[in-house]
UniProtKB/TrEMBL annotation:
It comes from Klebsormidium nitens (Green alga). Residues 29-340 form the Protein kinase domain. The lineage of its organism: Eukaryota, Viridiplantae, Streptophyta, Klebsormidiophyceae, Klebsormidiales. This is non-specific serine/threonine protein kinase. GO terms for molecular function: ATP binding; protein serine/threonine kinase activity. It comes from the Eukaryota.
Length: 347
């Protein structure tokens, strides 16, 4: 893991132009193109360039074609800096084939590109962070779902279970740690996909919302604090009902992720979040929070593809509004393995 905290006198724009070079630790990368942006971060495809003093690294750090994904954060507040540092810690805490590894990271101090009325460069000093990851060229599970919506295609039943199995495997590492941690933002947009020799690999990414999973709530004030935290860190359509309306006396645990995974499983099959589907089915006049709190799951009347009843049963078990009755991720792993082994060949 390479990390640097340094001062650069060079002036930087928020967007890195194609062809620019960026140093992360002692490694130099050239920006090939921008892949996306969101919040205060940009993601680029980069290619590693030779340096005067190349250093040997474990082969797991080196891409065959020298290309990686680079995520750039614009850090303008102390709170944003702490969030970036927290993501670094979370990214290095867990290792699993279905958890995206952070290969290198660098936090630098730069000066805003600002010109005073007198023509002088007088920008404020600020910070930027650069994270280096393996690149998954097929994008996210959400990208695949969106494409399937357009082509009216669907994942096969074995593919659904293989994707679910791998997400469960990654979450099992987090939930089994001591103390248990929750991802807190499981959704199709935070799962990367890659097809290799006909097989699908699914990898969980984005650890910015990872936190200790078990929270004891004893007062209404504590409940409201948790709700506010969830509103900032947990994507609404995939947020568990206990995070929309937290009881004043309860113990929240890692099964908030199981709810999110249940919503994700529904979306893998039917291309839409179950509670967004319920709201849209009412002409868009319903409340997403109320739909989630009710826990009522509607199924498409004319789906592009039909799945076995056991798939629906699994979704419903994960979307139990009483989180103490939801399965733990270890139980889900066993259930999915059993479903894979008993799936009829024609599926």
């Amino acid at each position: 893991m390479g990390c640097t905290l340094s001062v650069w006198s060079t002036l930087y724009d928020s967007v890195v132009p194609n062809g620019s070079d960026v140093w992360i630790g002692d490694r130099r990368f050239r920006v090939v193109k921008e892949l996306g942006e969101g919040g205060f971060a940009f993601v680029y495809l980069v290619k590693e360039m030779p340096t005067e003093r190349p250093q040997e690294r474990p082969t797991s750090y080196v891409a065959d074609d020298g290309q990686y994904a680079m995520k750039k954060f614009l850090i303008q507040t102390e709170e944003q800096l702490q969030l970036v540092k927290q993501e670094v810690v979370s990214s290095t805490r867990f290792q699993h084939p279905n958890l995206l590894p952070l290969l290198e990271h660098s936090i630098i101090t730069v000066k805003d590109k600002h010109v005073s009325p007198q023509g002088a460069l007088d920008g404020n000093w600020t910070r930027e962070a650069y994270f280096l990851f393996p690149v998954y060229r097929e994008g996210t599970l959400q990208d695949a779902i969106s494409q399937m919506q357009e082509t009216k295609d669907c994942f096969s039943a074995p593919e659904v279970l293989q994707i679910l199995k791998q997400i469960c495997g990654g979450l099992l590492v987090m939930h089994s740690s001591d103390p248990p941690f929750a991802h807190n933002d499981i959704k199709p947009g935070n799962v990367l996909l890659e097809r290799r020799s006909g097989n699908i690999k699914a990898v969980i990414m984005d650890y910015g919302s990872v936190s200790p999973a078990r929270r004891k709530v004893s007062t209404r004030k504590e409940a409201l604090v948790l709700q506010e935290w969830a509103a900032e860190h947990c994507t609404a359509p995939y947020r568990a009902p206990e995070l929309f309306d937290t009881p004043s006396s309860c113990e929240i645990d890692e099964r908030t992720d199981v709810w999110s995974l249940g919503c994700t499983l529904y979306a893998i099959m039917y291309h839409v979040n179950p509670f967004e589907f319920a709201v849209n089915d009412k002409g868009g006049g319903g409340s997403l929070a109320l739909a989630a709190i009710s826990g009522r799951v509607q199924w498409p009347t004319s789906p592009v593809k039909s799945y076995p009843p056991s798939f629906h049963d699994l979704v419903l078990s994960m979307l139990n509004t009483d989180w103490t009755r939801r399965p733990h991720i270890r139980d889900l792993c066993r259930t999915v393995e059993n479903m894979i082994s008993t799936l009829p060949p024609e599926m």
